[in-house]
């Protein structure tokens, strides 16, 4: 029986993060069936979608002389530069075709402002501009959130840390996540999440 105060948040299960995509996460497509199977266990189901305008400031192609995975300093702090990905309206921004989107109560888009990236489902990368998800969940009576999706060490990690900081009880189901793992970013993310009180299941 789904508990009324529990939400499943499915992070960025999109074509560009799956094998063959612009920012492919190894095994990204392997989690889709398992995520679909979990949806019935939650009263509230949210899907997030990374949704960048062309020429987004997180794209290496927007920074002359820079390459994907270089770091730059943005007004809001350090930022990894990515290959162009999840451009609004392109096939790469679409959900994986096997992801069950019908059960979703809310599809939340993020990263749509050119000048700022948004890894977290709750705040943009300045860690203070809200996406509105906190208000949505609170108004729905949610107190506990389970996170799955892509990528463990970026968007899942940032979302989990923000959810914990906001006072939600947070679980990340590691078997239903896959990581990018740049320079030890997966281990660092697991450490940070554990320290923040996130349950890594
Ligand atoms: C993501 C890098 C850039 C993610 C999104 O979904 O983890 N990573 N944009
Ligand atoms: Zn992105």
From TrEMBL:
Protein name: Nicotinamidase
Signal peptide coordinates: none
Pathway membership: Cofactor biosynthesis; nicotinate biosynthesis; nicotinate from nicotinamide: step 1/1
Stated family: Belongs to the isochorismatase family.
Database matches in CDD domains: nicotinamidase (cd01011)
Top EC class, one word: hydrolase
GO molecular function: metal ion binding; nicotinamidase activity
Keywords for the protein's UniProt record, in alphabetical order: Hydrolase, Metal-binding, Pyridine nucleotide biosynthesis
Enzyme Commission number(s) from the entry: 3.5.1.19
Gene3D superfamilies for the chain: Isochorismatase-like
Highest taxon of the lineage: Bacteria
InterPro entries: Isochorismatase-like_dom, Isochorismatase-like_sf, Isochorismatase_Nicotinamidase
Keyword Hydrolase: yes
UniProt-listed GO biological process terms: pyridine nucleotide biosynthetic process
Residues covered by the Isochorismatase-like domain: 7-200
């Amino acid at each position: 029986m789904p508990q009324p105060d529990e939400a499943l948040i499915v992070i960025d299960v999109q074509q560009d993060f799956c094998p063959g995509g612009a920012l492919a996460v190894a095994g990204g497509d392997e989690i889709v069936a398992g995520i679909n199977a979990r949806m019935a266990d939650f009263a509230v189901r949210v899907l997030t979608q990374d949704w960048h305008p062309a020429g987004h400031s997180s794209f290496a192609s927007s920074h002359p002389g820079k390459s994907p995975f270089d770091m730059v300093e943005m007004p809001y702090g350090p930022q990894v530069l990515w290959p162009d990905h999840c451009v609004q309206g392109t096939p790469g921004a679409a959900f994986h075709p096997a992801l069950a989107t019908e059960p979703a109560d809310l599809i939340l888009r993020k990263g749509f402002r050119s000048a700022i990236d948004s890894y977290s489902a709750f705040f943009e990368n300045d860690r203070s501009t809200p996406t509105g998800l906190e208000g949505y969940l609170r108004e729905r009576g949610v107190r506990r959130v389970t996170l799955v999706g892509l990528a463990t060490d970026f968007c899942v990690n940032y979302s989990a840390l923000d959810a914990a900081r906001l006072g939600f009880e947070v679980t990340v189901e590691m078997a239903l996540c896959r990581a990018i793992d740049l320079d030890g970013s997966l281990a660092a993310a697991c450490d940070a999440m554990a320290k923040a009180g996130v349950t890594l299941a």
